[in-house]
Specification:
The protein has 219 residues and is an all-alpha fold. The chain has one domain. It is built from nine helices and two strands; from the N terminus they run H-H-H-H-H-H-E-E-H-H-H. A two-stranded antiparallel sheet has the order 1-2. Helix 4 runs antiparallel to helix 5, helix 6 packs antiparallel against helix 7 and helix 8 runs antiparallel to helix 9. The protein is globular. The chain starts with a helix and ends with a helix.
């Protein structure tokens, strides 16, 4: 039964992410930026697949790590032309950092799926919302780290991350006794996003938010 859960988890991850790439990279007629951010946000739903796995190495090395190679091959610096236009619409290695984060979180925090969820949500839903809202409504620029950030985008990241984390942890039956942990961690993640450049927020936001949440819960 455990073996079946691991296999099912791998199948679901590959089918789901593959379907998103197919739809938003080769089928959708929306602009490439919107397609990229749609992938960015919706891939975050892999947190619901985490409970299927009972082995950290299967989840980390077989379900997550291969996407580091796949997203690199889709990136502008790859020597292989995959025909992907979506990967060219943002930071070149942004999706690679995303895959690295998912892999590291799976390996480090396998025994604490709620901690993995917090990091993935801040990176996917939160950072994705910041980009979309910032691009459309970002009239008040934040030039702290010489990257395109805005007050509107950062505010949306905070609100979306806090809302989705609360909902998901409730579904996981893992809400913390001190609910103030959630806005505190999301505030840290938002600050990290503001100061991150060149797509590194896909790595820094996920890792720091998960580490922060783990420290608050268990140390």
């Amino acid at each position: 039964m455990m073996f079946t859960g691991n296999i099912l988890g791998i199948i679901v991850v590959y089918l789901y992410v593959g379907l998103l790439l197919l739809i938003f990279d080769f089928v959708s007629k929306k602009d490439h930026f919107t397609n990229r951010k749609s992938i960015h946000i919706l891939v975050g739903n892999i947190i619901f697949v985490v409970p299927l796995f009972d082995n950290r190495w299967v989840m980390g090395l077989l379900a997550a790590a291969p996407f580091i190679v796949i997203t690199y091959m889709m990136s502008p610096i790859s020597f292989i032309d995959t025909g992907s236009k979506t990967s060219y619409s943002g930071h070149g290695l942004g999706l690679v950092y995303y895959s690295i984060s998912w892999t590291l979180l799976a390996l480090i925090f396998f025994d604490h799926p709620e901690v993995i969820a917090v990091g993935i949500i801040c990176m996917s839903y939160g950072d994705g919302a910041a980009s979309l809202v910032g691009k459309r409504f970002g009239d008040h620029s934040l030039n702290i780290a010489r990257d395109d950030k805005s007050i509107e985008g950062s505010a949306s990241m905070f609100l979306v991350s806090a809302s989705v984390i609360t909902l998901v942890l409730h579904i996981f039956n893992s809400l913390p006794e001190n609910l103030l942990f959630i806005p505190l961690v999301v505030g840290i993640a938002t600050a990290v996003e503001i100061f991150s450049v060149r797509g590194l927020d896909n790595l820094s936001v996920a890792m720091i938010s998960s580490i922060s949440y783990y420290i608050l819960l268990y140390l």
